[in-house]
Amino acid sequence: MRACRFVVIALVTLFTCAGAPNAAAGTRPRNIILFIGDGMGFGEVELAALQQPPVADAPANPAAPVPPLFCFERFPVAGTLSNRSANSLVTDSAAAATALACGAKTNNGTLGLAPDGTRLESMAELAKKHGKAVGIVSSVGFDHATPAGFYAHSASRDSYEAIVEQALTCKTYDVLFGGGVCATSMAPALMRTRAEAAGLAYFDTTNFKDITPAATAGKAVLGAFDANNNDLLDFLSDRTPECPEPRLADVATKAVDLLLARENGKGFFLMVEGGAIDWACHGNNAKQMCGDVREFDRAIAAVLAQLAAAGQLEDTLIVVTADHETGGLVVVGPYGKPLAPGQEAEIKWSTGGHSAMFVPLYATGPEAARLANRHDNAELGRLLKTLLTP
Ligand SMILES: [Zn+2]
To answer: Could you tell me the distance, in angstroms and rounded to a whole number, from the CA of residue 34 to the centre of ligand 1?
Structure first.
């Protein structure tokens, strides 16, 4: 019953915002949210949509021309994003995060620095400079490449210890939440000690529910919500009912709660990464991938409903894209007959690494119309930085 009501709210929300971009064209969005499905190419979206369990109040119809759409596929603007890095046709997540966050190409492995080592300014840093509240959220470690691209500057994405130091001292964010910490030296107790010594409010799975605007007032908030030392919010497909870790939608809406309380009339910037999608694709694990694309979509729907309830949906530019595709996934069958309800589609993975394929780009809200058609990752980063500048 609760699930049904949630779906209805999400659908009402989406149909409400479908007309927003043109009405608001030419105005700066008050808030910008960038959702990044790490490794989420067209094949991933297609397969995850095909394999969605039927919605309770909308029974599967094998004759339907398209699979059930994700909420982000209902956004009024769609396009594609190319993602080569400065030194490679196939990008890694560090160069791709730098391009999206800073609006400039760099070499694979590099975070927040140009190929010549010049420091680049990320949109999170820019938004903070202009008085906006800033949040960075990921389903994998907060020191992993994609979230780090928004606050860290490092010649190597693998320098996890140094990246954690930057997370402790950078003052770029109001909220930084991840599905754990990748730096191996940072055991949970040490992480808490270090964060509190740095003046941050620190949270993990044991006190996730205590995160409130009042409990964290005046402090930057850092959270790592991994309870079983695998550096991620557990895959939906692998979760047991006892799993104490919050889900991506819980973490993202908690971040929005804090940002709405802190934005001081100036709005906020938030990046939310579905980071474990990429990890599933590296393992060519379709079940994990499909579940986490659904988790990513569920987080987007929850944030849309939250913004609508706060009266800020029409003022928020929401962009959903990927940093690159992982796995070279294609759906190849069945051929000659429809996919029966509950049947698994036939697929082929062509690599355990990333591919050079362009990725989907969806947008809704003020200025969303500028994201139609084909874009490049660094150019998208530059555009969003322009829109974050008063
Ligand atoms: Zn990857």
So the answer is: 18
**Residues with a beta carbon under 5 angstroms from ion ligand 1:** 278, 326
Would you say residue 134 lies in a domain? yes
The answer as to whether 60 is a domain residue is no
CA separation for the pair 275, 261 (Å, rounded): 26
- What is the average pLDDT across 237-247? 95
**Closest to 371 in 3D by CA, of 40, 33, 108, 21:** 21
The rounded Å distance from CA 110 to ligand 1 centre is 14
Cross-strand pairs, 333: 346
Tell me, in angstroms, the distance from the centre of ligand 1 to residue 75's CA: 26
Q: Which CATH number fits the domain that encloses residue 316? A: 3.40.720.10
Q: Decide the pairing of beta strands 133-138 and 175-178.
A: parallel
Residues 139-172: tens digit of each pLDDT = 999 999 999 999 999 999 999 999 999 999 999 9
Extract the tokens encoding 168. Answer: 């402790």
Number of structural domains (the chain) is 1
Three-state DSSP class for 289?
A: helix
- What Rg value do the Cα atoms of the chain yield, rounded? 20
As a whole number of angstroms, the distance between CA 300 and CA 33 comes to 10
Q: Do residues 30 and 312 touch, judged by C-beta distance below 8 A?
A: yes
Residues 6+ apart with CB under 8 A from 335: none
CA of 389 to the centre of ligand 1 (A): 31
Q: Would you say residue 6 lies in a domain?
A: no
Cα separation, 35 vs 27, whole angstroms: 21
- Tell me the CA–centroid distance for residue 276 and ligand 1, in Å: 9
pTM of the full predicted structure?
0.92
